Amino acid sequence: MRQWDGFDAIEGDVRTMVTDPRWPALPFPARAQAIALRTLATPDDGLWRFGSHARWYRQDPVDGRWHLSHPPADPLMRAGARVVQVASAVPPQLVPSGPDFTADRGSVQGFVGPDVPFEITERVRDLLAAQRGRRPEDFPLHGPFAGLFAAEVASPVAAVWGTLMWCAYAPAFDGNEVLLSMFGEFLARPLPGDEWVRWLPPASLGDLVALYGERVRAGHPEAGRRLVALMAATAEAVRTDPRFRPRASALLAMVSPVLHRTGQDAAAAHHGDDAVRHMWLSRCPSHVALSESSPGDHFQHAVYDLVRTLGFIARKGADPRAVAASLLAADLSAHAPRAADRLYPWLDPELRHILHVVLTDPAHPLRGCWPRAGGVPDFPSASALPSALHPPDRASAAALLGSAYATGLAWCRLSGTEVPERGFATAAAVVHRLTHERDDPLPGVSGPYPHLRHF
């Protein structure tokens, strides 16, 4: 007989309830009560609810707040969970809307290991080729993109690049990735990274908005609309890749009124880029967590993803939650230890405690999870994770690299920390689990992509 698992039972019950077509039509109090009646208590006195985004939340016993928090993997903890009646109300943000339970979450993999499919790179190449010859006088380049591209490059090139970087879940790319190499002729300087990976900072939605807003305020609204159309075409080109899909689909929803001339975006642009940015964010599907909407919520989702990708270590008797907190501590310790103070309020009590003690106690056992130098044969300066944390396969390694990098970007955004040019310790330590394998072959061609220079 299968052992009772309170988390599986409640999650299955809530999923069945929320995906019923009648759920969205129920009054909010009825939906909130349905979630409240399925509160779980664990043997460690934790209170848990399965809610919005089809994810778990844990209550902080001190202030009563509910934190997005991946559930425990320990079978005894899960078996000991029981449904309880609690007096506290369900915060509105925990109550599922319905569509958030069926939304496509895409993939957390980075772009090291599995290449971007050939069909996508060719579509982007065609879009980029069509921008050659655009005059900077007609499409001037300002802001963050101006320092990345050569002086003679016009803003349509930046629109394609910015869309790729904004749509990517974790913009960490193999140094030979075709999707990047096609931009080589336009760049003013080398991209950040190391000898293996381009660790790229994400573009912000504000960066994309600025390209549009500048043209509108300069008296060329149609040029601005063409830039937005190019962003949409780029998003459409990449959204068959699950690493791009959720955010690419969100961007298409946000800019659709511009393309169909049904929005007030041009009028808003005359009040500044921030007005347009807020307008675009108001159209973003609610199930997509963006750092622009709430850096804290975005960080919580990234940590949740990181814990999930570490699920393979539960089979070895380790706790994915504790290991995730330890790896977060490793990244903070290597780059910005003081940034932890900005992160603690967004973590549940257990993760908050683990992060603090691992950061402050040099002898803490969980520091044994930290990347170690000298663990990669033939590359004595490279770091690697302890063997117990080695992902079991290529897909798992790409997911760990991607989720670790996305978590790093999220805490940098939340704490106002600059993204390190050579990546974060955890993500970098996974690279050599992937680089020894061949890249994906070209369709109809035996062997990997032709060698491309690192830039």
3D architecture notes:
The protein is built from 19 helices and nine strands. With 455 residues, the protein is mainly alpha-helical. The strands form three sheets. Strands 4-3-2-1-5 form a five-stranded antiparallel β-sheet. A two-stranded antiparallel ribbon has the order 6-7. Strands 8-9 form a two-stranded antiparallel sheet. A hairpin with a 5-residue loop joins strand 1 and strand 2. The protein has three domains: 97 residues, no CATH class; 165 residues, no CATH class; 139 residues, no CATH class. It is 44% helix and 6% strand.
SSE layout and pairings?
Elements (H helix, E strand, L loop, with lengths): L5 H13 L9 H9 L3 E2 L5 E5 L3 E5 L6 E3 L6 H5 L2 E2 L15 H4 L15 H12 L14 H5 L6 H13 L4 E3 L3 H4 L15 E3 L5 H13 L3 H18 L6 H15 L5 H5 L3 H10 L12 H15 L10 H16 L4 H4 L5 H12 L11 E2 L9 E2 L9 H22 L9 H6 L25
Antiparallel strand pairs: 1-2, 1-5, 2-3, 3-4, 6-7, 8-9
Q: How large is the radius of gyration? A: 23 Å
Low-pLDDT regions: 440-455
Share of helical residues: 40-55%
Question: What's the story with the biggest beta sheet?
Answer: 5 strands, antiparallel
Overall pLDDT level: 92
The SSE order reads HHEEEEHEHHHHEHEHHHHHHHHHEEHH
- How many DSSP-defined strands? 9
Q: Count of helices?
A: 19
Give the CA-CA distance, first to last residue.
58 Å
Give the structural class.
mainly alpha
Q: Order of strands across the widest beta sheet?
A: 4-3-2-1-5
Indicate how many domains the architecture comprises. Answer: 3
Into which percentage range does the β-strand content fall?
A: 5-15%
Task: Give the overall silhouette.
Answer: globular
